[in-house]
Specification:
Blueprint lengths: L8 H10 L4 E7 L6 H15 L5 E7 L6 H7 L6 E7 L6 H14 L4 E4 L10 H11 L5 E7 L6 H13 L3 E2 L8 E4 H8 L13 H11 L4 E8 L12 H17 L1 H4 L6 E2 L2 E2 L14 H22 L2 H11 L10 H17 L4 H7 L1 H14 L5 H17 L1 H8 L12
Parallel strand pairs: 1-2, 1-4, 2-3, 5-8, 6-9, 8-10
Antiparallel strand pairs: 4-7, 5-7
Helix pairs in contact: 2-5, 4-7, 6-9, 6-16, 8-9, 11-12, 11-15, 13-17
Length: 420
């Protein structure tokens, strides 16, 4: 069932009562009773400390929590000149629909600026409000992405896939394209609301990368802001990957397909303006089961090696086989191989009109392999030193973009029998 709006009648009525706002802050949530109060507290304090004369509305966009998330949110008292709307959104389950409701509310209230933050944050401070909103309110930017001080093994999808392609393909050095905490101008919010994407799978887990790439490819002014440490419900990628990985990759490859006329001429990666100072705090350590990642890669070769051999060039496939023969503690999936893997996968996605979801599912073990390799490469490094490896990898993707252009329109004949 398609919905013309993510706003339920109660939310629409509340917005009509509020009439107008200067700032809208959206907090998408689902079963976050343990963290939602802290997030709201920091948001209301930040709005009061930095924008006391502006009328602000906090939108709690809930996905149908079965715990006390909404009750906790309703009971929390805000500062003066602030209002709150707590409601379940309407539409396809997922963060994208939660943000759709926030954007529709910001448009209805004609807000000057809109900001969204995740509901599982434990490290958010009142300063985040100023750091995200200042570039929009005081400097005229349309899109503000976060920069966090993160442990070297946090954000593995960003570090090994999204950051590389955001730079190399779309030409912008935005460190956290799927960070989850953003700010937007009125014009960009209205643009998002009018896009025909909210009833698609992007509205589940692919929304963050969609927001970033849409802003870049449509010429909106983009920047980023240092927020400090990000402490949230981080997961070991060997245990908790699931639909998020698949949807992010699918969305990213689909965006490459939809915007090829925009990105093909881009040959360099430009830095975007950055606000604030880098944090000197050390991020909390995250445990990752590297041997389990290696075993998943090796199992992937056993199960899907025939398909990999058809998808990837011979040199690339030989490198994958060589990696599978390495012991866990010395496992390496070289950077040049990983570049070809992602570029050849993107080109295959472009040339295969069917079986695209299955294609992404079958290469998940390759991602596990690259993460395991990164862990082994950086095991003796601190997070700052490991960050230099991330940057080196991204630069390598930019330098080798001509390979993507070379193979993009090269016919890829799908195998007659795909694994099920």
């Amino acid at each position: 069932m398609r919905f013309r709006s993510a706003l339920r009648p109660y939310a629409q009525k509340r917005l009509e009562e509020i009439e107008k706002a200067d700032i809208v802050v959206g907090i998408p949530c689902l079963n976050n009773e343990k963290t939602i109060e802290h997030v709201i507290k920091m948001v209301t304090h930040g709005l009061h400390d930095f924008y006391p004369k502006l009328h602000s509305v906090i939108i709690i966009s809930d996905g149908g929590s079965t715990d006390d998330t909404r009750d906790v949110a309703k009971d929390f008292q805000l500062k003066p000149w602030q209002e709150k709307v707590v409601t379940i959104y309407r539409g396809m389950p997922g963060k994208g629909t939660a943000l759709r409701m926030v954007f529709e509310a910001a448009t209805f209230l004609d807000a000057r600026a809109c900001m969204v933050v995740d509901s599982d944050l434990r490290s958010i401070t009142n300063n985040w409000v100023q750091r995200l909103l200042e570039p929009v309110i005081d400097h005229g930017f349309d899109f503000v992405a976060p920069i966090y001080a993160r442990y070297k093994y946090d954000g593995t999808i960003t570090n090994n896939i999204v950051y590389n392609l955001c730079q190399a393909v779309f030409g912008k050095k935005i460190r956290q394209p799927i960070g989850g905490d953003f700010a937007f101008s009125k014009n960009l919010v209205r643009f998002y609301v009018n896009q025909d994407v909210w009833e698609t799978d992007v509205a589940r887990f692919g929304i963050d990368v969609w927001l970033t790439i849409q802003a870049i490819t449509h010429g909106f002014g983009a920047c980023q802001a240092h927020l400090g440490r990000k402490i949230h419900d981080a997961n070991d990628p060997s245990e908790h990957l699931g639909p998020m990985f698949r949807q992010v990759v699918l969305t990213l490859f689909q965006l490459m397909e939809d915007t090829e006329e925009v990105w093909k001429p881009i040959t360099t990666a430009e830095s975007v303006p950055t606000f604030g100072e880098p944090s000197t705090e050390k991020p909390d350590r995250i445990f990752v089961n590297a041997p389990k990642l290696v075993q998943s890669f090796k199992l992937g070769l056993q199960q899907f090696g025939t398909l990999w051999k058809e998808v990837f060039c011979s040199d690339c496939f030989d490198a994958l086989v060589a990696a599978a023969n390495m012991p866990d503690d010395r496992f390496r999936l070289p950077m040049d191989t990983w570049v070809r893997v992602l570029y050849e996968l993107a080109a295959t996605f472009h040339n295969w009109p069917e079986n695209r979801r299955l294609l992404v599912d079958l290469v998940t073990p390759l991602y596990f392999g690259r993460v395991a390799s990164f862990i082994n490469e950086t095991s003796g490094m601190d997070s700052a030193e490991a960050e230099a490896v991330v940057e080196e990898q991204a630069d390598f993707f930019v330098t080798n973009k001509d390979y993507l252009i070379e193979i993009w329109d090269k016919p890829h004949k799908p195998p007659e029998h795909l694994p099920l």
